[in-house]
Amino acid sequence: MVALLIAVALTKPQVRPAEERPNIIVVFLDDAGYGDFEHNGNPVIETPTISRMAREGANFTQFYAASAACTASRYSLLTGRYPKRSGFPSWVLDPGSPQHLATRETTLAEVLKAKGYATAMFGKWHLGTPNERNGQTPDALPLAHGFDRWIGTDVSHDYDASRLMESQGSGYRTIASGLTSQPDVCASLTERYADAAIDFVRQNREKPFFVYLAPNMPHLGLFVSKAFAGRSRRGLLGDVMAELDHHLGRLWKTVEEMGLAKNTLVLVTSDNGPWIRFQNTASDPKYGEARMHVGYAQPFRDGKGSSWEGGHRVPGVVYWPGTIRPGQRLDPMSTLDVLPTLAGLAGARVGPVDGRDLRSTVLTGKSPADPFEFVYSGSDNQGWAIRQGPWKLHIRITSQTGDSYGFAASRETPLLFQVEQDLGERFDRSSEQPAIRDRLLKGLADWEAR
After folding, report:
1. Going by DSSP bridges, is the β-strand pair 383-388/391-394 parallel, antiparallel, or unpaired?
2. Same domain for 194 and 121?
3. Over the range 351-363, which residues count as b (16 or more CB within 10 Å of their CB) and which as e?
4. Would you say residue 355 has pLDDT above 70?
5. In terms of domains, do 386 and 361 share one?
6. What integer pLDDT is reported at residue 203 of this predicted model?
7. What is d(CA 80, CA 60) in angstroms, rounded to the nearest whole number?
8. CA nearest to 67, candidates 126, 109, 121, 24
């Protein structure tokens, strides 16, 4: 009996106080819309794990991705800096681009690693890849940016040149390439990443860990394992969301089994809004019935690639049992705030970034002392709109659908919306609120000068 008790004791990690270098899991979904979750009102998509975390933690109704498309958004999450600072020519780097995340940038993984964290990434990188134009440099991939381990795709799985890769020691091996012609590999990605994350948590339960889980889904084309095919009333999109939710549940169950639940913070969000329109099968057979595969940004206007709210406002859930009071609303927050906030919780100091340290907000539920300011980046990583408090001003509009909804915007004729009351950005208030309009124009000019 004594031997059994000793064995049990040895399998359990020595639990740290909850706020002392908490374990961190950041889940960065790909193209998941605000309305793709049951806790945000979707009546047919089932996300029981994420929606329970939203109810028992903090659910953000005003959480913003720093860009409406992939590469730029991931840059900002990991650096706490606006995409314009990256030097990237656009918001997406293709497989042949010579650019990549610069090693001079300080990432969240590097900050946490310096504080003794084990760090790993499981999922899509899309911040540069070795190719002929950059000398096949390994500096383009995650190990050069603070991660101890990585398995994932170098770019989105819808590129013909995409690769599924894995770190090996200080290098990498390619597991599969040309993923557009390998649907079985694509269908395995969600479970593959979760399995690797679970193994990593088990292996590092004795020390603080950082898991960056970045699934390829629900980015088009959609792929799901056989175990989840046909399960949802919403069709393939619902199947994909159910599988993502299930595997996050498996990861969290592992955390609980390790006795680490009260030491672990989970953030679930998305890199941008959803595809809301896709071409029909005749003009784009690559994605089959793609019109039925796109997600929901409701109640916001437009989606991925747009400067309207639907392009940038995304789901945001922070879950930390025993520390974050259930049912909190901590709005607003953006992905720019993730690095300084998590670094602060880990006891790390960071240099100047564009985000805010919201530790006190996360821990106490009190509103931030500083007023919220956020700049919406366009396809050229320039500032196309700005929000201050509840007011948003457009100087340029981009729309995934190509529909400007009857509006045009420029510096000379900007559009002004009160986005806490006018969720769909329907009523331009610029003529009746000239002082607010001019203040936001100045705010955007100041941002550009910085």
Report:
1. antiparallel
2. yes
3. eebbbbbbeebbb
4. yes
5. no
6. 98
7. 19
8. 126
266 and 406 in one domain?
Answer: no
The structure tokens 């259930």 sit at 326
Q: Residues of the chain with pLDDT > 90: what percent?
A: 84
Do 337 and 441 have their domain in common? no
The pLDDT of residue 4: 46
Q: How confident is the model at residue 14 (pLDDT cuts 50, 70, 90)?
A: low
Tell me which of 340, 367, 394 is where a domain ends. 367
- Between β-strands 209-214 and 118-123, what pairing exists: parallel, antiparallel or unpaired? parallel
Nearest to 403 by CA among 422, 425, 431: 425
How many residues does this entry show for the chain?
A: 450
The CATH number assigned to the domain holding 195 equals 3.40.720.10
Stated as kind and residue range, the H or E segment containing 5 is helix 2-11
Euclidean distance between CA atoms 73 and 301, whole angstroms: 19
C-alpha distance from residue 39 to each of 74, 142, 276, 301, 317 (Å): 25, 33, 20, 19, 10
Out of 126, 157, 219, 394, pick the active-site residue.
Answer: 126
349 plus 406 within the same structural domain: no
Q: Kindly state whether residues 326 and 417 are assigned to the same domain.
A: no
d(CA 64, CA 286): 31
Residue 11 has pLDDT above 60, yes or no: no
Show the DSSP H helices in 302-355 as ranges: 309-312, 338-345
In which band, very low, low, confident or very high, does the pLDDT at 361 lie, cut at 50, 70 and 90? confident
Provide the CATH number for the domain around residue 398. Answer: 3.30.1120.10
Number of domains in the chain: 2
Q: Which of 306, 336, 367 is the last residue of a domain?
A: 367
Domain boundaries, position 393: 382-449
3-state secondary structure of 206: coil
Beta strands 149-153 and 23-29: pairing type?
Answer: unpaired
Domain identity same for 253 and 399 = no
3-state secondary structure of 394: strand
CA 442 to chain centroid: 29
DSSP letter assigned to residue 221: S
> Beta 373-377 vs 383-388: how paired, if at all?
antiparallel
Query: What are the tens digits of pLDDT across the range 219-238?
Result: 999 999 999 999 999 999 99
Q: Quick count: other Cβ atoms within 10 Å of Cβ 44?
A: 11
Mean pLDDT on 85-89: 96
Within-domain flag for 375: no
186 belongs to the catalytic site: no
Instruction: Look up 126 and say whether it is catalytic.
Output: yes
DSSP classification of residue 58: E
Same-domain status, 94 and 179: yes
pLDDT tens for 310-341 read: 999 999 999 999 999 898 877 899 999 999 99
